[in-house]
Amino acid sequence: MDAVIRESLRLYPPAWNLARTALEDVRFGDGGGATRANS
User: Is residue 31 classed as helix, strand or coil in its secondary structure?
Assistant: First the structure.
């Protein structure tokens, strides 16, 4: 029975849509492509 529950949670996780929000601006590589937080 434990295997059935684990497989169900693997296929259908309870938190499938976690909202992720950037807290600050980020620069990639040489700084040529800056990305603003929450844009």
Answer: coil
